[in-house]
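User: Can you predict the 3D structure for this chain?
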Amino acid sequence: MADFFKNIADQFVFNFIEGDRWQIILDGLLVTLKVTLFAALIGIALGFLVGLIRANRERNGRSRNFRYFRLEWLCDIYVTVIRGTPVMVQLLIIYFVVFAAVDIDKSLAAIIAFGFNSGAYVSEIFRSGILSIDIGQTEAGRSLGLTSAQTMVKVILPQAVKNALPALGNEMITLLKETSVVGYIGLVDLTKSYSIIQSRTLSAFWPLIAIALIYLVMVMGLTKLLGILERRLRQSDKR
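Assistant: Here is the predicted structure, written as structure tokens:
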């Protein structure tokens, strides 16, 4: 038993301590967190706007204003294309096609790609959340003298966000894990750090286990935070 634990300690030192190889994982983790955070911000902002436009059309019918109708049409195309193609293909198109003639930072290209990808899914989450609110809530707001915009902001959206929160949290967790493909454009993230360590130690097991555990801890942490937030929102509803 003593030899078993000694072997584990030796492998840990060899894979992560010698040559400061732990720094490679830390640097990759910071890249993963940066891409995830900024892509999530883009995705939430973009998804909210697209979801609001599409939900408004389903509640009130297609707009007769040509410019707004064209905006609705563009939103439909955006959601269909993004949800219908793999995120890795979108990442490669953004980096190797859209920005082929521009010396763009790889992290920025990844943030844009994942932000636009997440936005399509977030838009469906917000759209579903808005449509889950009974139409009577809108009518009640209008009967109190509120405009359509005021009714949406003060009555519908607060309830819709609460309803959408669990699905939105799951989307953020999915986004965190999906960023593991950024290595295809040469960006050294948490997952890519494995191949660098493996090339130096010729050991695949320990780097992969370490990376898997880090992802697991991050996902569990996000899940815990979302659970706390949901409980507080439920408590506020009871007051």
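The longest helix spans residues 22-60. The CA atoms of residues 63 and 69 lie 5 Å apart.
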